[in-house]
Structures are given as C-alpha cells and as structure tokens.
Amino acid sequence: MPEPSKRVLIIDDDVDFSELLTSMLSKSAVKVHISHYGEEGLQEARRMKPDLIVLDVMMPGMHGIHALGLLRTWEETAHTPILIATTLPREDIEVGVAEGDAEYIDKSVSIQSIANRVKRRLGLPD
C-alpha cells in the first residue's frame, strides 16, 4: 500500500462511526486521526493541519457548530475543507454550516457513501 498522501481529522464522539470511516479511508492510503471530543479535536486540527476535517455536531462538551466557528478563526484551519456529518436535519444547522463554509453530510446514509464523499473532496478516486 502506498504511503498516505492526505490527512483527515475526524472529530466525532461516535466510536463506531469514526472507526468504520477510518477503516474505509485507510484503504485509500489516507492517514486518519480521530478525536472524540471537540476541544481535543480543535487542538489536534491546529497541530496536524489536516487536508480535511469530518466534524460531528452533537458532542459532549462542545457543539460542532461552535467548533466550526473556532476552526475558521485560526490561520492553520481557516481554509481547511470541513464536512459536517450529523443525523440532524440540514435545516436545523443550515445557518451555522453556511457561515462556517462547510459541507453537510447526512450520517444516516451508508458509511461507504460518506467515505466516497471524503475521497472525492480530497481529489482521490472512489
């Protein structure tokens, strides 16, 4: 397998979702880091400067839309593509997603569909 050329940070408290997505992305030589808490994820994002962030909304400690706002204020992550992955309806978070220049992903679709969307956003084949 080739060396990972892209780095993805998953900030999500859902362990099963994070591990499944990591498994699928790793097959495409994507290096994945996981943070299960918003504050920890923010620190990791500034440290690693990922090529893409997958961010949950409903997490303990910090709401994902608040985290998105902070990510956009820091030089290290201001222009990093962010995919908001949630089971909340789009209309419930639409303003925050738009203001944070992020993309919405419905977590209720298949994990393969989410992995493919991440890969496409990174410029990798499905």
Descriptive notes:
There is one protein chain. The chain is an alpha/beta fold and 126 residues long. The protein has a single domain, classed as Response regulator (Rossmann fold, 3-Layer(aba) Sandwich). Helix content is 43%, strand content 20%. It is built from five helices and five strands, in the order E-H-E-H-E-H-E-H-E-H. Strands 2-1-3-4-5 form a five-stranded parallel beta sheet, with helices on both faces. Helix 2 (38-48) packs parallel to helix 3. The protein is globular, with a radius of gyration of 13 Å.
Fold blueprint:
Blueprint: E1 6-11, H1 15-26, E2 30-35, H2 38-48, E3 52-55, H3 64-73, E4 82-86, H4 90-99, E5 103-106, H5 111-121
Helix pairs in contact: 1-5, 2-3, 3-4
Key features of this structure:
126 residues, alpha/beta, Rossmann fold, 5-stranded parallel sheet, 5 helices, 5 strands, 20% strand
Q: What is the gist of this entry?
A:
By secondary structure, the protein is an alpha/beta fold.
Count of structural domains: 1
Separation, N- and C-terminal Cα atoms: 16 Å
SSE order: EHEHEHEHEH
Provide mean pLDDT, rounded.
91
CATH architecture call:
3-Layer(aba) Sandwich
Shape descriptor: globular
- CATH superfamily, by name, is Response regulator
CATH class: Alpha Beta
**Quick one: how many beta strands?**
5
**Strand-pairing-aware structural class:** alpha/beta
